[in-house]
Amino acid sequence: MYRAPRGTSDILPKEQAYWRYIEQKVVNICQLYGYERIDVPAFEDTGLFSRSIGEETDIVQKQMYTFEDRGGNKITLRPEGTAPVCRAYLEHGMHNLPQPVKLYYIGSIFRYERPQAGRYRQHYQFGYEAIGDDDPALDAEVIDMAWQFFSSLNLRHLSLILNSIGCKQCRPGYLAALKSYYANYIHDLCSDCKTRLNRNPLRLLDCKKPVCQQIADSAPKSTDYLCPQCDEHFKRLKRYLGLLEIPFEINHRLVRGLDYYTRTVFEVQPEAEGAQSTLGGGGRYDDLIEELGGRPTPAIGFAAGIERIILNLKQQDVPVPTLPRPQVFIANIGDEARDEAIKLTARLRKSGIGVIEAVGDKSLKAQLRQANNLGASYTVIIGDQEVKTGTVILRDMTTSQQKTVPSSQLEGLLLG
Fold first, then answer.
1. Which pTM does this prediction carry?
2. What digits encode the pLDDT tens for the residues 20-36?
C-alpha cells in the first residue's frame, strides 16, 4: 500500500479548521498593515537559491531538492520564500513602484531534513517582505506585525529574541574576532563547525550541537563590532520597540540560518525550549536585491511555519472556530421521493443553503442517524405522501420536533 513520502503529511478534514483559522489571521494582519499578496512558483532556477542563501549553508549543501528537468535546466523546489519574492520584485520592475513595496505569501517549502514534530520535508509557510527602505521604523513595523499576528491567535508566553549582525562594512572585523576566538577550540568543535570556521564562521553560532553551543556562549558579540551606522540603526530599533511596548531579549548568538541577512535579525519563540521551539523569524537583507542583479535595495522580512504554529495552538489548548457545514440533510424514501429530493437539493443550494442529500438505499432510521452524525441542524424528509401533497417534513435535529410544511415555503423557514 502506498503511503505519503517520509517527511510529508496529509492535511485531513478534521485538521482544516486550524489551517483556515491561521490563513484568515494572516490575510487580516497583512491587509491591516498594507501588504499585498504575491504567489510565486514552487520551483526556481537553482542558482537563485545557491546565490542568495549561501553556498556554505546547510540548506544549500544538504537540504535542497534539486533536479535537472527535461530541458536540461537545473531546478530546485523552493527551500525558503524570500529569494523568489525578490526575484519577482526585480523581474516585474517593482522598483518603479512607491517604496517600500510590501508583499506577503502563503505556500509550501521543501527541505530534506530529519522529520521532527513541527518540521517536515514539505511544510507550509507564510511570510511577508518590505522591500525598498532601510528605516529602522520599518524593522519595528515588521516585528510589530509578527507580534500582533501571534497575539491575534491567542498564543501566550511568547518571547521576542533580537540581535544585529552588522553589514558588509563592519562584519569583516567581527568575523576576524570570531575566527581568533574559535581557533582556541578547534579540537572541540563538531566536524561541520571545523569546516565552517574557515568557510563561514558566522554559522558557528548557529550550530545545534551541545558542545558547540557551550563554546558559542562565550564567543565575541556582533553588537560590539557594529559600525556607527549599524549601531545607530540598532539603537533606534530598540527605542521604537519600546514605544510599541513590545518586550524583547538580546541574544548575541542569534544569526539566523541564511547568509543574506544583515543588521536586524529576530525570532519569536514560545517558552518551550529546544531546536524546534521557534515559531517564526526574519531580519534585514539589504544586499540581496543587489546580489541578484538589481541596484542596492534595502529590505526586511519575516516568515513562520504553519505546522509549528498549529502544534503550539494544540499544546496551549487554544480553541479555533469550527468550519461551516451544510445546515440541511435531505432524507427520502421511495423512487418518486428520490427524484423530488434531487430537485429540492438543487433548489436549496441555489438559494445559498448548504445541503447534504442522502444517497443509496438506507432506511429512514439510518438516514436520520447519518444526519445526526454530520451535525445537520435540520433534516428534510420526503416520502411518497409528501410528493403527492407538495409538502415535506421538517425535523429539528436539536429538539427532535418535526412538522409538515409546504415545500414552497422551505427556503423562507430555513433562512428566517
1. 0.88
2. 999 999 999 999 999 99
